[in-house]
Amino acid sequence: MPNDTVNRMVNEKVAGADILKIQTAEALEEAARKLRMADVSAKGEHVKQILQDVEDRVNQFKADVGAGYHTMEADYHKRAEPVEHIIIDHPIPSVLIAAGIGALIGMLILKARD
After folding, report:
1. Distance, CA of 103 to CA of 109 (rounded, Å)
2. What is the pTM of this model?
3. The predicted structure's pLDDT at residue 43
């Protein structure tokens, strides 16, 4: 799986989480504004309703972030699974390729030291 695909997936999910974070912050600010404007004689039920509204929005934020995480994880597994199957189906060539790449990197490191 190309690195740019992973970066794109992560950036999309982070952008979505940022939007949800902003919406939750706005909900908290709105609740704080309502509580400040509430009359001292405001009934407990009114205050409870404001706080319940905030709690509902925060819970929705948590659910949306969790769903986004699970979607991202499923996308990753969907893309990584074919590579895993190739390695499982062809273990000897996979080991030889990995050893060759390791040897090449080792030679490059040794040459860079000179």
Report:
1. 10
2. 0.44
3. 72
Asked if residue 32 lies in contact with residue 53, where contact means CB atoms within 8 angstroms, the answer is no
Distance, CA of 109 to chain centre: 35
Tell me which residues of the chain have a pLDDT lower than 50. 1
Give the pLDDT confidence score for residue 103 in this predicted structure.
93
Residue appearing with tokens 């597994």? 77
Cβ-based neighbours of 13, under 8 Å, separated by 6 or more = 68, 69, 71, 72
CA-to-CA distance for 70 and 62, rounded, in angstroms? 12
Residue ranges covered by each domain of the chain:
3-113
Taking each continuous run of H as one helix and of E as one strand, the counts in the chain are 3, 0
**Considering all CA atoms of the chain, what is the largest pairwise distance in Å, rounded to the nearest integer?**
81
> Which pLDDT score, from 0 to 100, does residue 71 have?
81
Please state the separation of Cα 8 from the chain's center in Å: 12
